[in-house]
Amino acid sequence: MKLKNKMSIEILSLPENVALARVTVAAFAAQLDFTLEDLEEIKVAVSEAVSNSLIHGYANKTDCMVGINAVIYDNDVLEVEIKDNGVGIADIQQAMQPAYSTTPERMGLGFSFMQSFMDSVQVDSAPGQGTTVKLTKKPSKNVDKQDN
């Protein structure tokens, strides 16, 4: 796939930067023929991934960095990567189960939302080495309905 456009930002692990990340990625994604509903879903998925970095990856420390890279390929696929250098995830399969959370007061639905709103979600993580979440989505009007 040929690269059509790319953006990268780094944000401090501040709660107010979750909103910055979500609107920045949505504005970038709006170059494609996404519906308003698609853009809202992208915002939620990005919010969940960035929030996971802040809450779980960095244990709410506000002096760490979260990297966000977004790419649009010539086949109109949006790929968003959220990366932290936090504590990492020991068991990715367990972490992606609905209602699983390492924090008891949390609902544990972040990965479930990401999976339901994006075409694919890939997680690469190791304890002590951080986590990278890769989200991909293609505008729904371009998806062949027979593939669903």
What does this structure look like?
- By secondary structure, this protein is of the alpha+beta class.
- The protein has a single domain (3-141), classed as Histidine kinase-like ATPase, C-terminal domain (Heat Shock Protein 90, 2-Layer Sandwich).
- The protein has helices at 17-29, 36-57, 92-95, 110-117; strands at 3-12, 65-73, 78-84, 120-126, 130-137.
- Strand 2 (65-73) and strand 3 (78-84) form a beta hairpin.
- Helix 2 packs antiparallel against helix 4 (110-117).
- The longest helix has 22 residues, at 36-57.
List its traits:
148 residues; alpha+beta; Heat Shock Protein 90; 5-stranded antiparallel sheet; 4 helices; 5 strands; 32% helix; globular; disordered C terminus; protein serine kinase activity; sporulation; Anti-sigma-factor_SerPK; Anti-sigma F factor
| Percent helix range | 25-40%
> What's the tally of helices?
4
CATH architecture: 2-Layer Sandwich
Compute the separation of the termini in Å: 22 Å
CATH class: Alpha Beta
Element pattern in H and E:
EHHEEHHEE
Global structural class: alpha+beta
Globular, elongated, flat, extended or rod-shaped: what is the shape? globular
Characterize the largest beta sheet: strand count, sense, and whether it forms a barrel: 5 strands, antiparallel
Mean pLDDT: 89
What is the CATH topology assignment?
Answer: Heat Shock Protein 90
Family: Belongs to the anti-sigma-factor family.
Protein name: Anti-sigma F factor
Keywords: ATP-binding, Kinase, Nucleotide-binding, Serine/threonine-protein kinase, Sporulation, Transferase
GO molecular function: ATP binding; protein serine kinase activity; protein serine/threonine kinase activity; sigma factor antagonist activity
